[in-house]
């Protein structure tokens, strides 16, 4: 939908009106036949039709293009009233800057920021409303630290709130202790499994070293026996040499 033509100051060229809603173009697109439309209007039209609503020429979404620059400039220069005129805003500005103004307009109706409050209030009056809003929150004046709503003032009981808070903290502490306990048990189990695995590896290494030691002792005994045999042969040879 376009901008309500009644909001504009002075004459608005016919070429700057949407061919569907007949209001001033908003986010405009142009067909090959040069008729212009609001984006929302032409997209809605093409859901059920395949031609231009003005001259019935065949068009497709892919053929739509942005408005010519000179037309876009003319459109942006149009002067119009703020949409909050009925609430007292007297601002008149160009179409190019109207959105920026309306986002910051002091007469805009905005919702109260307090949770649960459904009041719509003018931006300029928001601070005053927040000061008296029944859904406003504040810290307990008795020093318990609890945040209360004004509507709950008469029901607020510091002792009960502190007891509830204490129970919550106690429950949270128990949960944390249990979590820490489970985590420590898990770590201990992991370390225990690691130690058992390490012990098994070390035991295998010890057995392998024992086996190697046994083979080495066997080799030493064989070498000693060979040495004795060799010495005996030398002694025999020496005797034979003497006899000769």
TrEMBL record:
Keyword presence, Coiled coil: yes
Keyword Zinc-finger: yes
Annotated coiled-coil segments of the chain: 192-243
Phylogenetic placement of the source organism: Eukaryota, Metazoa, Chordata, Craniata, Vertebrata
GO MF annotation list: ligase activity; zinc ion binding
Pfam family, one: zf-C3HC4_2
Organism field: Mesembrinibis cayennensis
Zinc finger (TRAF-type): 101-144
Domain annotation TRAF-type: ranges: 101-144
The RING-type domain, residue ranges: 18-56
Protein's UniProt name: RNF41 ligase
Key words of the record: Coiled coil, Ligase, Metal-binding, Zinc, Zinc-finger
Gene: Rnf41_1
BP-aspect Gene Ontology terms: regulation of canonical NF-kappaB signal transduction
């Amino acid at each position: 939908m376009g901008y309500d033509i009644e909001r504009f100051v002075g004459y608005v060229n016919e070429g700057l009106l949407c061919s569907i809603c007949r209001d001033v173009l908003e986010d405009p697109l142009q067909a090959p036949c040069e008729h212009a439309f609001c984006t929302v209007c032409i997209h809605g039209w093409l859901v059920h039709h395949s031609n231009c609503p003005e001259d019935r020429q065949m068009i497709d979404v892919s053929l739509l293009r942005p408005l010519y620059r000179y037309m876009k400039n003319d459109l942006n220069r149009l002067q119009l009233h703020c949409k909050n005129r009925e609430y007292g805003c007297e601002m008149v500005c160009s179409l190019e800057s109207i959105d920026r103004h309306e986002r910051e307009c002091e007469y805009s109706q905005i919702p109260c920021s307090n949770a649960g409050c459904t009041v719509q209030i003018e931006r300029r009056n928001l601070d005053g409303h927040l000061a008296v809003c029944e859904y406003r929150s504040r810290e307990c004046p008795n020093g318990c630290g609890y945040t209360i709503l004004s509507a709950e003032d008469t029901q607020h009981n510091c002792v009960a709130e502190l007891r509830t808070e204490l129970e919550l903290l106690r429950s949270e502490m128990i949960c944390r202790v249990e979590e820490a306990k489970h985590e420590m048990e898990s770590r201990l189990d992991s370390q225990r499994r690691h130690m058992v695995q390490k012990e098994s590896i070390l035991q295998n290494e010890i057995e392998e070293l024992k086996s190697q030691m046994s083979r080495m002792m066997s080799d030493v005994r064989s070498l000693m026996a060979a040495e004795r045999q060799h010495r005996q042969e030398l002694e025999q040879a020496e005797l034979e040499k003497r006899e000769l």
